[in-house]
Specification:
Layout: H1 3-7, H2 23-40, E1 43-44, E2 61-69, E3 75-84, E4 87-91, H3 94-99, E5 104-107, E6 112-116, E7 121-125, E8 130-135, H4 140-162, H5 166-172, H6 178-184, H7 190-212, H8 221-224, H9 226-241, H10 249-256, H11 263-270, H12 274-279, H13 297-310, H14 315-329, E9 335-339, E10 345-351, H15 367-371, E11 389-393, H16 394-400, H17 406-412, H18 417-430, E12 442-444, E13 451-456, E14 461-469, E15 474-480, E16 485-496, E17 500-506, E18 509-513, E19 516-520, E20 524-528, E21 536-549, E22 552-561, E23 573-580, E24 585-592, E25 596-599, E26 606-610, H19 626-631, H20 636-639, H21 651-657, H22 661-684, E27 694-696, E28 702-704, H23 708-713
Parallel strand pairs: 11-12
Antiparallel strand pairs: 1-6, 2-3, 2-8, 3-4, 4-5, 6-7, 7-8, 9-10, 13-14, 14-15, 15-16, 16-17, 16-18, 17-20, 18-19, 19-21, 20-21, 21-22, 22-23, 23-24, 24-25, 25-26, 27-28
Helix pairs in contact: 7-9, 9-11, 10-13, 17-18, 21-22
Length: about 725
């Protein structure tokens, strides 16, 4: 003990004169200790007990709170919250909240609420996410104010969910005694409902397997599954008519046991009695902004089904739904009907292949021996074995980005500039859908001077692309139709980081609609598990779409591709907002880049774009979509029209498509030697390569020189001097 400790005055607790603790004092300290323990533990806020018709509308509350983030910049961050009518919304600042730039939306009535008084923390569990909140100022009064108001708003919201307004009762429930049944009938045991749905799911899946068995006789799936589907329909009708299940639990449970193959059947059955679904209590699905993209595929199907029933006035949505249903039921069709701008079939039909000549040949490649000396380097300059390739070219991959060009046709026919921006944003997002199943292979690198054309009268566009530079590698493309002109030049930087490879695109994508210009840049892509495990791809970053006219900027759209968090809870999510020239939010977007994009907020969100169904055996054929399968097809009638530089004449790519890996590797090496030889000749003669069909613009981008299609028809490419590329 130091000298200072010896001479320090004794505190009352350590004073020798302190009296002996009596039993009463012990009991008092024990009560105090239990109170501290209770405040240090989480206290669960109880749900509403019974219905109350005269709950007073709670007051609005707003202010700054701390919100915990996991990724990125994990920790506590200030956010401005607004609590109104049981809905808690928040933004980065109060100004952003007023402008509609929300970061999230929480339905307090559908959330489980817990609080810890000692640390003044509040947790809201929405099933999809848990929101951790804390009072910014360490004052007990402010904490109690938020807790009290959250309790009041939660009770008000739960009561509001349970009880329908009288005017809705007159429309959806004309009988006066139907509401009285709600008070007398016990709520269904959801476990029994779940069990029945599970049995139905197993039955439908067994019928689906039987239907797809080649040796089995032809079976009409609609007829075979009619009894089972009607049973499910009666369950749902009973639940909705008597209000026996509210909230999102029944929706989620139903979607989990709704097989995708039965979606057309369910839609047809439900459409026979739309009044029950439209007139009954709406399904309320709590989805926050931060987790809205994590809607499972099954819930996406639910939204699609609801949209099909409730959006009967939209012929465009119905047409897309019909197309997807036909693709789901009949994947083997190889006939593609030409469509005009309105999507109606015409008399001409183009026969296109529905699968590649050969499945993917699995041959092991020691990637580590190739990549270990190239960590952190640009892999575009590293020669890779042909086993790592897919039988498509980078120029063809650029053409894949216009698969959903009908979105541009719709945008061109939309007069509202902000709604037009919504369709263009959906088109920009749709360009990434084909990459979801393609992480296992890389496209062939184009040879300098290599070209590719795609003339699709059924889709109303014609597309050309050319490799305009080799070092650095630059690919340029131009696509045009009667409604739009689309062009871009893309260069990539590839970086290998040991377990993953990052692909950073450079360049700007351009779109022109009747004089209006749109521009955006692509986001970063990353392929994970390069050396071992299941490879998967993700895209992350911000895509900013600018709309400009001769009079100035009109609208702007920012689409954020979210990076996957731990556990892949938000895998492939995108969020976006369309703003006017003053920065005011006009439209909100959310979804997944590999599935669908929605306009608005659930449950009233509208599906703007949905990815086409994949071929049944796409895993065996490089994960190609039906559109990708058609890109490298060389028809007899095309051979005389195409230049010899067209990708479809490339022998190594064709041999890989046919399953001849050894021959493809041999041809690939020969073609690379020819390219190095041509480059050496140019350097020795102080010459540079001049692209044939593209030219540099004033902004240093590559644009079409407008000669390709004229040369194609007269006198033809056969009379041109074309270098030997392969």
């Amino acid at each position: 003990m130091s000298t200072e400790d010896q001479i320090a005055p004794l505190s009352p607790k350590t004073s020798p004169a302190t009296p002996t603790i009596t039993p009463f004092t012990q009991r008092k300290e024990s009560n105090s200790s239990s109170e501290d323990n209770r405040q240090d533990s989480w206290e669960l806020v109880e749900d509403l007990q019974g219905l109350t018709e005269n709950i007073q509308k709670p007051e609005k509350l707003e202010g700054l709170l701390l919100k915990k983030r996991k990724w990125p910049m994990k920790g506590w961050h200030k956010r401005y919250f607004l609590l109104e009518r049981g809905i808690l919304t928040y933004a980065k600042t109060g100004t952003d909240l007023k402008k509609g730039r929300l970061r999230g939306r929480i339905d307090v009535g559908l959330s489980v609420m817990a609080m810890k008084k000692k640390s003044m923390c509040i947790d809201l569990d929405t099933e999809d996410s848990i929101y951790h909140l804390k009072v910014l100022a360490k004052t007990r009064d402010l904490f109690e104010q938020w807790v009290t108001q959250l309790r009041h708003h939660r009770t008000f919201r739960q009561n509001e969910i349970t009880m329908e307004p009288p005017e809705l009762l007159l429309q959806s429930d004309p009988t006066a005694n139907r509401r009285e049944k709600l008070n007398t009938v016990n709520f269904l045991d959801l476990s029994e409902c779940e069990s029945a749905l599970l049995e139905l799911n197993l039955l439908l899946k067994n019928m689906e397997v039987l239907h797809r068995t080649f040796s089995a006789p032809a079976i009409n799936l609609l007829q075979v599954g009619l009894f089972a589907c009607v049973s499910l329909y009666l369950w749902i009708k009973y639940v909705f008519m008597f209000g026996l299940c509210t909230g999102n639990k029944f929706v989620y449970m139903l979607s989990c046991y709704w097989p995708k193959s039965t979606k057309p059947i369910m839609t047809q059955i439900f459409s026979t009695d739309q009044e029950v679904l439209v007139g009954s209590r709406p399904l309320r699905q709590q989805v926050s902004s931060e987790s809205r993209g994590s809607i499972p595929e099954s819930l996406s199907e639910f939204f699609d089904a609801k949209e099909y029933l409730l959006s009967g006035s939209s012929s465009e949505n119905e047409a897309s739904d019909d197309d997807s249903y036909v693709s789901d039921v009949s994947d083997s069709t190889s006939v593609e009907f030409c469509r005009n701008e309105n999507g109606n079939g015409s008399n001409c039909a183009v026969m296109r292949r529905d699968r590649l000549p050969s499945t993917r040949m699995n041959e092991s490649v020691n990637l580590w021996s190739i990549l270990r000396s190239n960590i952190g380097k640009d892999l575009s300059k590293v020669a890779m074995p042909v086993q790592l390739n897919e039988p498509l070219n980078t120029l063809q991959r650029l053409c894949e980005e216009v698969e959903y060009c009908h979105l541009l046709d719709t945008a061109a026919n939309t007069h509202d500039p902000h709604m037009r921006m919504v369709y263009i944003a959906a088109f920009a997002v749709s360009a990434y859908a084909c990459s979801f199943t393609r992480a296992g292979g890389k496209p062939f690198n184009p040879i300098l001077g290599e070209t590719y054309e795609c003339l699709r009268q059924d889709k109303g566009f014609r597309f050309i692309a050319e490799q305009v530079s080799h070092h650095p590698p630059v690919s340029a493309c131009h696509c045009e139709s009667k409604n739009y002109t689309f062009w871009q030049d893309v260069r990539w930087k590839n970086k290998f980081w040991g377990k993953s490879m990052e692909i950073v695109p450079m360049g700007v994508t351009h779109l022109e609609l009747f004089g209006d210009r749109y521009e955006w840049s692509k986001v970063t892509s990353c392929i994970h598990n390069i050396l071992s495990g299941q490879r998967w791809i993700e895209h992350y970053g911000e895509m900013s779409i600018k709309h400009s006219t001769t009079t100035g900027d009109v609208s702007h759209c920012k689409v954020t591709f979210l990076k996957s968090r731990s556990g892949a809870l938000n895998a492939n999510e995108v969020e976006g907002m369309v703003t006017d020239s003053n920065g005011r939010v006009i439209h909100s977007l959310f979804g997944k880049w590999n599935e669908a994009l929605y306009l608005g907020k659930p449950p009233s969100a509208t599906c703007i774009w949905r990815a086409n169904p994949m071929p049944e055996d796409h895993e065996q054929y490089y994960g190609f979509t039906q559109f990708a399968i058609e890109l490298n097809e060389l028809e007899e009638g095309l051979k005389a029209l195409l230049p010899l530089t067209d990708t479809r004449f490339r022998p190594d790519q064709r041999l890989l498509e046919e399953g001849d890996i050894a021959g493809a590797e041999e041809q690939k090496e020969r073609i690379e030697v020819l390219q190095r030889e041509r480059r050496r000749v140019l350097q020795e003669n102080n010459m540079t390569h001049s692209p044939r069909f593209f030219k540099r613009a004033e902004d240093d981008s590559w644009v079409s020189n407008g000669t390709y299609w004229d040369l194609r028809k007269d006198p033809g490419f056969s009379k041109l001097e074309i270098p030997v590329l392969w």
